[in-house]
Amino acid sequence: MRVLGIETSCDETGVAVYDGQAGLLAHRVYSQADSHARYGGVVPEIASRDHIRKLLPLLDETLQASATERLALGGVAYTRGPGLAGALLVGAALARSLAYALGIPALGIHHMEAHLLAPMLEEPPPRFPFLALLVSGGHTMLVQVAGVGRYRLLGESLDDAAGEAFDKVAKLLGLDYPGGPALEQLAKQGDPDRFRFPRPMTNRPGLDFSFSGLKTYTLNTLRGAAEFDDQIRADTARAFQDAVIDTLYLKCRRALRQTGAKRLVVAGGVSANRKLRERLAQLARTSGARIYYPRIEFCTDNAAMVAYAGWLRLSAGEHDSLAFDVTARWPLPELREPPAR
Ligand code: ATP
Ligand code: MG
Ligand code: FE
To answer: Do 270 and 328 sit in the same domain of this protein?
Structure first.
């Protein structure tokens, strides 16, 4: 089965084609980051309009790049949520109407399930069961994964997500939106010994996270300094990044011990961070667990992961009714397994 995937949950417009036999055939992402940068964050109305503008041209381009006639499609998968309601509706409306016109099934996909399954597009893919750390702009979760749709939430952030903390601290440091990658670059020039930030919630049991305090810590560090120069910006970026990464490391170690898992999947935008990957490589060495990531470009939002998750479920016979809907707030553990064939 050949599946078209559509992603419009936030500020990336994505289209991809995944084929059950041949694998990923083509994918395209248009990032709206420049449209939002001058507002310092995503403006929902601009996001919806940009998706409307970009989605159809991107669809044509992706179908062409994958040498796929529309009639060769066996199903359409789109991100149903969680995300911005107006942005989600653009993708859902196109997906549902295209599927209707072609007489093929459509299926709404959970955006975080798509992130979670993204490493399965790589070689070798992780086998079930595994432990997953999802670190993105809106979520930080540790999930015990028994199979597709079999998710047990072990811990999550009680306030800001890891990526959100990167973005907010980047803003305090005068960096442009989205701040994660820029902060990683700035931190390279930082002195690791000048400041030490706390590792929130690591000195008590449990697998939950809290990152909003690091924002306040950053602010106080900058206020306490005599000058706001390049060195203090870099040193602060370094201290912040080390604190987030060390916290993620400690919680993954704890979760691996607690579950006895031998495989750890790390996905979502923050999993693109090289320092995080270096630190977790130490965990792989000491724990014996193997770690799986998406390729860098599939860490942040894309439609390849949506097409893949859609293929898994559509080829098992799952599909939506002719109506369509989006779900702006949608807890991952509410998902169910696809029907047995
Ligand atoms: P969600 O998936 O939770 O709905 P989202 O789709 O906005 O949120 P993603 O696209 O998965 O999130 O990831 C974007 C986030 O990843 C942003 O917060 C961005 O700053 C962060 N990010 C991207 N690259 C890096 C990096 N190299 N280091 C740290 N953070 C990064
Ligand atoms: Mg984005
Ligand atoms: Fe995302």
So the answer is: no
